[in-house]
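Sample entry (342 residues):
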Amino acid sequence: MNSMERIRLGRRKRRLRRRTASAALGALVLTLAVLSLVLGKTIYPFRDMIRALSGEEIRGVTFAVHTLRLPRMLAGTLTGIALGISGTSFQTMLRNSLASPDVIGVTSGAGAAAVFCILVLRWSGPAVSAAAVIAGLAVAALIFLTSGGGSFGGGRMILIGIGIGAMLNAFVSYLLMKASDYDVPAALRWLSGSLNGVRMKELPPIAIAVAVLGPAAALLGDRLRVMELGEEAATALGVPVRRTRLLLTLCAVGLAAFAATVTGPVAFVAFLSGPIAARLAGSGRAGALPSALTGAALVLGADLLGQFAFETRFPVGVITGILGAPYLIFLLIGSNRKGGSI
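Predicted structure, serialized as tokens:
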């Protein structure tokens, strides 16, 4: 077997492993989605759920499925897909596992804007969502400009993002301290990352964002393979490096911001999806599809755990935070032992 045949064989094996992992993750997401529709305070037969989804009126089942469970399941799936693609886009672009929207402060910007609108301006509904998206984009632009305006030093961008996120979290804490006791629960529900109370009318914006920005981020992400050769080599091969990074950043930030408008900032899903997908799919880095499916599985699985695994029901963001915090500590300890930096 010559070298070219070995290369082709290696490519086929990697392609097969990625497809197998994607199929397995898709089956897992489908299973979790069905469980989200079937399980609740009342467990309905699968047959009744299908009949209700097909439009048949069944007392109790139709209301529970259409009004409560279906919007919750769709919100969890779309949020997970958006955060999975957003996280792996940042991590691949900056070549750093710590580079995700929740770690570098993008979701903190969306959260601070939403809390300000809820507590100070007394806004609600679409106005809060629009403010959260704008704030997320503004924070990303600030990080982009202060970290070099296109040079994208990975460690510098992450550290600046962490600093900006810390300031925004302090601002949120101040608002919560000064707010009326009657207003705080609404803000805390938004900040914790929750699927409770999601309605179908809230889903079109994130569905459109996933349909448009998701494929765009996947296509731009393929250019990163060439950019890994270095900026000069990528430019010589015809890849517009700065434009690609800027557009990919906009796509990733947009996905994270739109996800936050529906559920609030669900902790660590963007952070975990890429590394988990890379372990499953192999080939050293996660693609958009495995990461998207991993994100959806994380959100749906965490939501089911939060609802049924404990005596007290917990928002999905609490469960994902419990899962993600140890991994973040593990990464930091590993980097310290190797004598590396962020």
